[in-house]
Amino acid sequence: MKTYDSFPQPIGGYTVGRTQMDFDYTASDNSKRGLTAFVYYPSDSSEGKETSTYMFPEIYDMFHEQPLITVLKDVFSIDIKTQCYDDLALSGKEKCYPVLFYVCGGGGSPEWGTVLCTDLASMGYVVVSIGHQNSTMYKRKDGRLFNISRGFSDVIMAFSEDPGMLTLAGKMEMHPDDETAIEMCHNVLTLPILAKLTEYSELQAEDVRYVADYLYKLNSGELKSIFERRLLLDIGMGIVGHSYGGPTTAIVCRDDDRFACGIGLDSGAFGLLDSDLKKPFLLMFSEPNYNMNALIGLNNSMETYYYSVDRAAHLDYCDIVFSSVNEQFRGERDAMEMRNLVTDYTKTFFDHYILQKAESVESLAYDGVDLVKKTSNQ
Prior knowledge:
InterPro entries: AB_hydrolase_fold
Protein name: Choline esterase
Keywords: Hydrolase, Lipid degradation, Lipid metabolism
Largest sheet: 11 strands, mixed
Strand content: 15-25%
Order of helices and strands: EEHEEHEEEHHHHEEHEEHEHHE
Helix content: 25-40%
Radius of gyration: 19 Å
Structural class: alpha/beta
CATH topology: Rossmann fold
GO molecular function: 1-alkyl-2-acetylglycerophosphocholine esterase activity
CATH architecture: 3-Layer(aba) Sandwich
Shape: globular
Number of strands: 13
Number of helices: 10
Pfam family, one: PAF-AH_p_II
């Protein structure tokens, strides 16, 4: 298989800056949450700096110590060059820039979306990728290390080994009709094992809302930063999540009116059994994943798009499409092709629903990327 020494050059015209921020707050369940976030943003020059480090070595070491993800041992490399630069000046080309959030998969790291976040920032968005306590791994700016908690690891393992889930998974059809997929999705979402898994998704959604509050303070000047009066917040923010991050994305859309729309990349509908997201939502996935999220469009009062991507593996939707060193975890699509289509659908969707641009995702055409269904229950 082809391997890469560096991530691809960003698609847009801006140089991309990256800065890291730490956060501490008390969640609604009274737990103390210590978060970090990488913020990617448009800049005008690299200022002669070296590119940002991709992933801290301490975090990479954690991956090899976690029983939850031993399957990923020696799957990817962190010795890859990024295309962003730490702590640059914010571009002066525009007065303000729209805001997006990225949510990585459970057991992952906030750096795992670097390619997509860099692409979106190069095209004029400020993009925030959070490290969520218990469910992801990260090193904070203050040096503290956060590993996956035993509780989260146990819940994920229990879900993967649940007899009811295994039985349903064995019955999932490729390209099911709507009725079959909706019934299967209902059966999955009513499994008792999902209750605890959903609690972690809801905590992640609370993290996103807390960091969104923080951005409002940065924008107002209450807290000093390069983003003072430079964030375009009144038009609404967008949010995209991969895998386990997808349900978090949907919960944020459902519960926070500051978010205008959302995207789930090969994700499910945990915690969303009877939820009206009230926001446009796009789901891009590899079959038989339609079985895992068919209820989202059934309940959503706004547009819901379902796009099936053939010849793609689950981890192709994140940076592993380039950092992979083990072909068994890669799909059959060329890495650049996969990156291009994910970035194109993501940006076009956000441009349409946040910036009110005319072009829609329905105008895009990639081989083997098919619109399974578009719903609107207005």
